[in-house]
Amino acid sequence: MDHGSAKPLNPVSFLQIFVAQSIKVLEQHSGQDKVGADRYIEHVGLSASHCLEEAARALLGYAGPITPDQYADVIINIKNRVGGNFSRASAAPGTVQVINTCCPFGDGVREAPELCRMTASVFGGIAARNFGYGKVELRKRIALNDGRCEVCIYTDAEAARDKPGDEYRCEGDKIVSRSASAEVCARVEAKLREVWYTEPKMLRRGARLPPGLVAQSAAMRSALEAVEIIAPTRATVLITGETGVGKEVIARAIHAMSERAEYEFVAVNCGAIPETLIESALFGHEKGAFTGAHNVHHGFFERADRGTLLLDEIDSLPVSAQARLLRVLQDGEFERVGGRQTLRTGARIIAASNQDLEGAVESGKFRRDLWYRLNVVPVHLLPLRERRDDIPPLVHHFLGRLAEKYQSSNKMLGEQAWAQVLSYNWPGNLRELENVLERAFLFARGPFIDTIALPKPDAESQGVANDGSLRELRQRVAREAENKLIAQVLKRCNGNVSAVARSMGVTPRAVHMRLKSLGINAAAYRLATIAGSPPRAESMSPRSKATSGA
Length: 550
Prior knowledge:
This protein is of the alpha/beta class. The chain has four domains: 168 residues, Trafficking protein particle complex subunit 3 (Muramoyl-pentapeptide Carboxypeptidase, domain 2, 2-Layer Sandwich), CATH 3.30.1380; 196 residues, P-loop containing nucleotide triphosphate hydrolases (Rossmann fold, 3-Layer(aba) Sandwich); 70 residues, Orthogonal Bundle (Helicase, Ruva Protein, domain 3), CATH 1.10.8; 80 residues, no CATH class. 49% of the residues lie in helices and 12% in strands. A hairpin with an 8-residue loop joins strand 10 and strand 11.
């Protein structure tokens, strides 16, 4: 690069770059303290808003009280003098709306999208000083590849009711901001951490990283606000959303914020339990209930007594188990398989599904009365592609966790990587984002991740979806999950079918039949144990290789 031909930076551009870089440094060193970083950004904007307003007023000749139209002139003047291309847009009474096609921060805003919050606090601070109130909603942002910025400022509290955004009020000579989402997020995350580090099973596993919460988007703010409202109650909750959107994290948050937090949180993936074992797994069985039932087995409802039971993939429950679950929800009562004694459970039920349960009800695959019992408080989590405001903070969050996990210095995305992240649809949602970032983190040689390897569209999955063979896909996934579950138990029991049967609460004959249907050779696990290595694909039958994708 020829530095001699480079244009010198003007003072405003220098300050913009300085602020952008200081935010990056703050993010690197603040770790999990997202609220602290947000407050810093907001504080900078509010502190600057007064002098910026005075300078704009002097240029425009505005003295004393101003009208909403003059307020719009002030904020447009401020932004355009530092390189923006802001203009007015039509808006309802009590509302000022501006659009912009050129960010004053230039391309640097894509590397630090949080700078938009600084703009919001400047607009909000000036509104609060002149009208006593301001709420700023960032509807579209160049930083998120929207093509333009669209900002709505509510100067009337009544007009802003039930609208998303951060509030600013004038109290004496002080501007007070209220970012409810940050406050709620901080409270919920604090309780999650507290419970996570005191759960006995987490201590046994040596788990160091509890789930993190990011709620920049209006959708996630609403979800966390709902968590805080419903957590103290006994209401049954139904969480819906695509795979990977964070349904279990929300369920754990509800548990952590409730009085049940000192008791156990039990998560059950209903789709991973074979249909023949589901009732025994949920409700337990008595000794002698069937051949091979040598001991009393306590089911998940007993284990979760006084705590919280998450029934994930609830749509996978067979109809017989749905009927028994309905009784538990209605009366809190159940019997173990083969038992005569009525037991009671105080477990709170949270159900989750990534399928359209209403459609399953209409098709007769899911009981309508159970649907009504589960859907007392519905919480729907939008996919990541519909809440892109959450993507930048999620990226920073995951990169911070990866640095801690691998005991490495923090890494940041470069301009090209940011463009990739913000333009991709993320069909796997948060889980996919985290996995992609982990690969990029490991292969990046320096502090910057220049590009990320995004997966190609799954042609097979697309073909299945386009052909309408969704049932076939679900059956294949269920077979793979069952295969994995039984393989894990076989490995733990060194290939001993009798031990597997006792562990799963069924007869050895039932296990043999299931192994035969799945094409799994138990002897391979005994041989692998002797050899000290996992069973190889050639040790399995041809059918097992096909089932496991070998």
